[in-house]
Amino acid sequence: MTNDTSTTWQLSGFGDEIDPDPRVQCAVLSALGARHIEVRSAWGTNIVDLDDEGLDALATTVRDAGMGVSAIASPIGKSELSEPVEFELGRLDRALRAADVLGSRYIRLFSFWCHEPDAAARGRDEIMSRLGSWAERAERAGVTLVHENEKHIYGDVPERVLDIVQTVDSPALRLAWDNANYVQVGVRPVTDGWAQLAPYIEYLQVKDARLADGEVVPAGEGDGELRETIANLRDAGFSGFASLEPHLADVTSTGGFSGAAAFGRAARAFRSLTDDAGVTLA
Q1: Which of 8, 74, 143, 245 is most buried when burial is the number of CB atoms within 10 A of its CB?
Q2: pTM
């Protein structure tokens, strides 16, 4: 049944899940109806490792394709807390440079690996301090950081994600909501996290997963409560980016890959859900 309420979201996607070449990335996304791309890597090089010449070439490629950049999908915070402070500050500077060159107002990041049982509690205060300093730099640059709830980092469950945004308490730090990642740590995203986190959600990363085995599946085929998420965002007046991150072929610690065919399948599955909810993807 189609909802009568109509709203428009901006469709985007992680281009490097399609192909290493950004020309191919843009072509496929455009064919799927997207006008934006989320940049994690180009030509096999991570966005924070691209030099100025590479950033300029990427900007030209995206512009020539008639597209914009929804977010810089940086790896910042996918690191050990034992790394020197300067390590992530250097990567943040490169991400801010990329955001400036590519015309993006968002940078995606994380909140440090916490693999050991007591790592989150032991590292909590230092993690908050570092995230706070990142938010200060981003605010000065006019950029918003969006924290992704990646599994096995400090902010992987709703309680600690809420701790981050409330403790840092900065308009330059908001949330990228990822349903599949919540499922993979045993959380039902809407049931367990929506009420407390909804005020801070700025960006939607689209993938789904099954509770039984953690396998990533197209939107609506898992336990990630995508239908409920879409309805809640619609009813809250969300009009931002929905970025496809299917992870349907391969997953690594730094990202994932789907290929053009599987990426298209993921896009069609998501569009079916948004059509049913009366949400237009543009």
Answers
A1: 245
A2: 0.94
